[in-house]
Amino acid sequence: MTEEPTEQNEVQRGTPGSEPEAVSSDLEELRKAYDDLNDRFLRLAADFDNYQRRMARELDTRTTFAIEAFAAEILDVLDNFERAEAADDASLREGLEQIKKLFTAILQRHEIVPIDCVGRPFDPQGHEAVAYVPADAPEGTVIDEVIRGYCMKDKVIRCAKVVVSRGKEE
């Protein structure tokens, strides 16, 4: 069984002498396409590295400025403490109350608010129990706040240290 020469077979086999030129030409085109893609990849990788470094520097700068602004506000409180320290005993209490108001206002401006806990059920997300004592309040109720807890934008930044009721002892 012999194959009859057809146009398709001729294309597959190629003509004598033209095969190396066609392969060479195709190989050169593929090599050029590979080099172009590799160059684009290397440039893209370098751009991404530069982007990451730039974002890290920008984040560091933003953080530094945020801390600096907050520190400047806190320095007002320190100035008032120094003035209260130099005051006589009669105006000392009034000065301390003013300092507390200023400090509370600064915290509220930054959305830092105290956790309200006395008389509420114990919540391990915002409370840390330091004592579990018998009391008239129902079991699991916070009856005393030892150290106040704080939230910033609905995130607990410091848990309140509380005393929890064990209920009435019989």
From TrEMBL:
UniProt key word Cell wall biogenesis/degradation: no
Secretion signal span: none
Gene3D superfamilies: 3.90.20.20, Head domain of nucleotide exchange factor GrpE (2.30.22.10)
CDD domains: GrpE
InterPro entries: GrpE, GrpE_CC, GrpE_head
Chief location bin: cytoplasm
Protein's job: Participates actively in the response to hyperosmotic and heat shock by preventing the aggregation of stress-denatured proteins, in association with DnaK and GrpE. It is the nucleotide exchange factor for DnaK and may function as a thermosensor. Unfolded proteins bind initially to DnaJ; upon interaction with the DnaJ-bound protein, DnaK hydrolyzes its bound ATP, resulting in the formation of a stable complex. GrpE releases ADP from DnaK; ATP binding to DnaK triggers the release of the substrate protein, thus completing the reaction cycle.
Family classification: Belongs to the GrpE family.
Protein's name in the database: Protein GrpE
Organism phylogeny: Archaea, Methanobacteriati, Methanobacteriota, Stenosarchaea group, Methanomicrobia
Name of encoding gene: grpE
